[in-house]
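QA checklist item 7 of 12: single-chain prediction sanity check.
[x] sequence parsed
[x] length recorded as 204
[x] structure emitted
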Amino acid sequence: MRLLTCILFFTSAICCNALYFKLPVNTEKCLKEEVHKDVLVKGEYEVHPVSGVKVHLLVTDSNGHILYQKEDAADGKFAFTTDDYDMFQICYKSSSEVQGRLPDQDIRIIVKRGVEAKNYEDIAKTEKLKPLEVELRRLEDLSESIVNAFAYMKKREEEMRDTNESTNSRVLYFSIFSMLCLVGLATWQVLYLRKFFKSKKLIE
């Protein structure tokens, strides 16, 4: 039951994401998403036209590299494959020189990644696969993506565990150092006060 739950979770995570939102005039909205290494990402967008308003679409990674851009975007598609684990963002920027109040633009975007981004119909035609073979290929790719996701989660867990252990060690050493400093300071104060009182002949 637990394994089935995990499979359903990762299947839903791999499925495409369709988003609808409104873009006011002369504003910018960005969508961000994390993607693993060597993952195919496909996007399909549609911008509801408004007279006198232009929308610039820009897709970049975390390093600022341009993956796709379109001036005066209306509708279209884009695709790219990630070279490493990264976060990409899709930005819509609206601009208009028309004075007065203009209606918001309706934006629709569908983002597919991993197994959902692959066109298995084209693969079947190219490799002359039967329907059952295509389904097996899709399940194989899905299983591979789940295994990669688990491997990445395990790697992140190891990195976080190492960070926690390193932090605990540093806190322990800092606490010991602080205690030694306090003990040394207290000892110095006692010796100093004893010497001071002896000089004033308040104690023998």
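[x] summary fact logged: Confidence is low (pLDDT under 50) at residues 1-16.
[ ] second reviewer sign-off
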